[in-house]
Write a structure and sequence with these properties.
The complex is a heterodimer of chains A (178) and B (568).
Chain A lengths: L34 E4 L19 E6 L14 E5 L7 H6 L4 E5 L11 E3 L4 E3 L6 E3 L5 E4 L8 E2 L1 E4 L2 E4 L14
Antiparallel strand pairs in A: 1-2, 2-3, 3-4, 4-9, 5-6, 6-7, 7-8, 10-11
Chain B lengths: L2 E3 L6 E5 L13 H5 L18 E2 L12 E8 L11 E3 L2 E5 L4 E6 L5 E7 L16 E3 L2 E5 L4 E6 L5 E6 L14 E3 L2 E5 L10 E6 L5 E6 L29 E3 L4 E5 L20 E6 L5 E6 L15 E7 L2 E9 L4 E8 L2 E9 L6 E4 L6 E3 L11 E3 L13 E3 L4 E7 L2 E5 L21 E4 L8 E7 L4 E8 L7 E4 L3 E4 L6 E6 L5 E6 L9 E5 L2 E8 L3 H12 L12 E7 L1
Parallel strand pairs in B: 3-34
Antiparallel strand pairs in B: 1-12, 2-8, 4-40, 5-6, 6-7, 7-8, 9-10, 10-11, 11-12, 13-14, 14-15, 15-16, 17-18, 18-19, 19-20, 21-22, 22-23, 23-24, 25-26, 27-30, 28-29, 29-32, 30-31, 32-33, 34-35, 35-36, 36-37, 38-39, 39-40
The chains are: A mainly beta (178), B mainly beta (568).
The complex binds FE2/S2 (inorganic) cluster (FES).
The site of FE2/S2 (inorganic) cluster (FES) has 12 residues of chain A, from loops.
């Protein structure tokens, strides 16, 4: 074949996904200093106090200092957990605030909300295809089909609230597909 | 609904290659869609009656042994490759998971162009697949995971228009090929696991403007609304994720509908019309002109999304204008197209089914063994499993043999238990306790799970069957060469069977598992068979669930490859 295939990028756009990186503050990733608030339920939008976090997982979003809640994308949603600090791996502890951990709720398989939590085994479980993630070991995959760990968000506690202390440990959600 | 006309794709890019025959593209007209030339494959199942049958016969029972791969093309993508290669006058179009659309020279395998949909990164891809294109005029349509229909110039891949059908963030997505008829492109939405309210939408195929939208769940006050309690209709699911059939004489389109949501029937007490049904929609207005609900208050995730095949069959010396549907619920349904709706003819199980205790001979309404019906906090063991006797892979019908070819699964049952779930927009809304649910095999599962069955539509009898150790996710193609093509098993084979006897005549081992819809076409007098091999989605999920209960299966590598075969 001597025809040469040429590659053009129409519109000159760089490759990348539209969506979660949109400019609106609701869709922006959690920012340093944001306060974690309840994502759902009776107390939706109110700040989570460390005392609220018990055995149950609490779904959280980050709230900016001007009161905007960054709830515009599943990729901003967090599972806030309380686990035994001593049982955490070294890496996990770098993201924790004492016993508290904030883990991305977006599955790295095909992006479902990771809604299952088993406090006795410290596993987050995705309902869509059953992937399991070991929270104490930086949310590594215990059982597929996911192959990549969930992202951890560094947090800190003070003044009775939990704040965002850095960026996600890795890409949130599935790998890009091209 | 947003709709825009594009000169170049705003969120898209196109890999273009020079093509020598771009000028020769033959516009797709209504007349051609009603009566496609034998050498072309212009729509999902080849023809509006959804037979999945080709009149081509250069490749036939005598020479199929000499069938050889002529060219292949690697898509570079993982997950489920299910699209039929759709062919119009030497142009071939395939789609892939994550909404790539590729155009080829159907004879040589040269790539003409490639369109890559730029998907939002936070879109949940619960079912990463796409089931092919629709064609009209000079346009090629793809329904996308972010719930748009995008129309491209068939010759160049340039985006001509795109229309947002629904908001992906609310759990809507699309995986089906458009049904194109009467100048409209019709699509349905997925999202039965995310608390959507399902619908079919028709767009003007030329402009992308909405023509009509018909919900599969009636609103309060509409007929059937009494079958949903309280507000459950708003989030009751009933997706439509497989292309409909079209009766050109009556102007009615026939669509299969999916599960109610959440999965447990006790969360939405009532029949839940029009879940797990076939609905007849008027092509012009979208009005529901008839329905038949295969089973009421679904609690087994038995989506009945495959559109019925339009087959005229004999019963008691009469020819009935029929609808035939091998159900996910394990029954083979024979229905009749009537002037005022859809009539029930008969039904019988084609795999082991232990849920229905009887079928009303007049209406076809089943009664249930309530111990076989899972509920919230109530576990139940039932057969077939939630993947059914036949999931989405389409059956085929040959008018030469009068046989219906069903890609079936038998001997896999499920124990399932529901848990409470509350609706949150765009989040999973199944209400199934997966920790405590699992597959259960019957004793005969060690003999076979997958099956290709052939049923005579006039006698209602099974004529032959081929069985496979593996579960089977293979769409079926029948041809006038008296061949039936199917892959679907985890041993990576693509096979040809004798249409009359089921004898295995040819097989080819491929790169991955073949869950693509096979098609056939002719260019310059040469017949080709084309299929995508690329295991993923529920075929892979079922394999993982089988592994959990100790069934050892071969590893099936992922990665899509288009295979095109011909005689040497
Ligand atoms: S999306 Fe989580 S396991 Fe598939």
């Amino acid at each position: 074949m001597n025809r040469r295939e040429i590659i053009t990028v129409a519109g000159g756009l760089a490759l990348g996904a539209r969506g979660a990186h949109g400019a609106s503050p609701e869709r922006m990733k959690p920012q340093i200093g944001d306060v974690l608030v309840h994502a759902f339920g009776d107390r939706v939008g109110s700040a989570i106090s460390p005392a609220d976090v018990k055995d149950d997982r609490i779904f959280a979003f980050a709230m900016a200092s001007d009161g905007v809640i960054r709830d515009g994308s599943l990729h901003n949603q967090l599972s806030l957990l309380r686990v035994d600090e001593m049982a955490m791996s070294e890496k996990t502890r770098r993201y924790a605030a004492g016993p508290f951990l904030a883990v991305s709720a977006a599955c790295t398989h095909t992006g479902c909300e990771v809604s299952g939590w088993q406090p006795d085994t410290h596993e987050l479980i995705c309902p869509c295809h059953g992937s399991r993630f070991a929270v104490l070991d930086a949310a590594r995959v215990v059982l597929g089909p996911a192959t990549k760990p969930l992202a951890l968000l560094p947090i800190e506690q003070g003044d009775g609230v939990i704040r965002v202390a850095g960026k996600f440990s890795r890409r949130v959600g599935p790998e890009p597909t091209y | 609904m947003k709709q825009r006309v594009c000169s170049v794709g705003l969120f898209t890019f196109v890999l273009a290659a020079f093509s020598t025959f771009a000028a020769q593209y033959q516009p797709v007209t209504d007349a051609r869609l009603v009566n496609p030339e034998p050498e072309n494959w212009l729509m999902y199942r080849g023809t509006y009656d959804s037979h999945g049958y080709s009149p081509l016969k250069r490749i036939n029972t005598r020479n199929v042994k000499r069938l050889k791969p002529l060219w292949t093309y690697s898509t570079g993508l993982r997950e489920g490759h299910q699209a039929p290669p759709i062919v119009n006058g030497g142009f071939m179009f395939i789609t892939t998971p994550h909404n790539h659309l590729l155009a080829f020279d159907a004879a040589s395998g040269d790539l003409i162009w490639r369109y890559i949909r730029e998907l939002p990164e936070d879109q949940v891809q619960m079912h990463p697949t796409n089931r092919g294109v629709g064609l009209y005029g000079d346009l090629v349509f793809m329904a996308t995971a972010d719930c748009y229909v995008v129309a491209l110039d068939a010759k160049t891949g340039a985006v001509v228009w795109e229309t947002e059908v629904e908001d992906y963030a609310a759990g809507y997505y699309m995986t089906l090929a458009s049904l194109v008829a009467g100048g409209k492109g019709m699509v349905g939405v997925s999202g039965g696991e995310f608390g959507i309210r399902g619908f079919v939408m028709a767009l003007d195929a030329t402009t992308g403007e909405e023509a009509w939208k018909t919900y599969t769940i009636p609103a309060p006050g509409e007929p059937g609304s009494e079958s949903w309690p309280g507000d459950s209709w708003k989030t009751g699911g009933v997706p439509v994720w497989i292309t409909g059939s079209f009766d050109t004489e009556t102007g009615l389109t026939y669509w299969g509908t999916g599960n109610g949501g959440p999965w447990m029937g006790d969360t939405r007490d009532g029949d839940n019309l029009y879940a797990t049904s076939v609905i007849a929609l008027d092509l012009t207005t979208g009005e529901i002109r008839g329905h038949h609900q295969y089973h009421w208050n679904d609690s087994w995730d038995w989506d009945e999304v495959s559109a019925p095949l339009l087959i005229d069959f004999e019963r008691a010396g009469r020819t009935l204008r029929g609808l035939v549907h091998p159900g996910r619920n394990g029954y083979l349904w024979f229905l009749e197209r009537l002037d005022n709706g859809i009539g029930f003819v008969d039904a019988q199980p084609y795999v082991k089914q232990d849920v229905f205790t009887s079928i009303d001979p007049d209406t076809g309404r089943p009664t249930y063994d309530e111990t076989k019906k899972p509920g919230t906090g109530k576990g139940a063991l039932f057969c077939p499993s939630h993947w059914g006797g036949k999931d989405w892979p389409p059956a085929a019908f040959s008018p030469r043999t009068r046989l219906l070819y069903i890609p079936a699964n038998d001997n896999v049952c499920a124990y399932m238990i529901g848990e409470e779930v509350s609706y949150r927009e765009g989040r999973e809304f199944m209400g199934t306790d997966w920790q405590n649910s699992n597959l259960v095999l019957t004793e005969e599962a060690s003999d076979y799970i997958g099956e290709l069955q052939a049923w005579n539509v006039d006698t209602g009898e099974k004529v032959w069957s081929r069985t496979f150790a593996s579960h089977n996710w293979g769409p079926v193609l029948a041809t006038a060469g008296d061949l039936v093509f199917m892959g679907g098993t985890n041993d990576r084979y693509f096979r040809a069977f004798h249409a009359k006897t089921g004898r295995l005549l040819w097989e080819q081992r491929t790169n991955s598992g073949v869950i693509g819809v096979p098609t056939t076409y002719e260019v310059n007098g040469r017949q080709y068979i084309a299929v995508l091999s690329g295991w993923g989605v529920d075929a892979a999920r079922e394999q993982a669930s089988l592994a959990e209960i100790g069934k050892v299966n071969p590893v099936v590598p992922q990665g899509g490859v288009l295979w095109v075969f011909g005689l040497e």
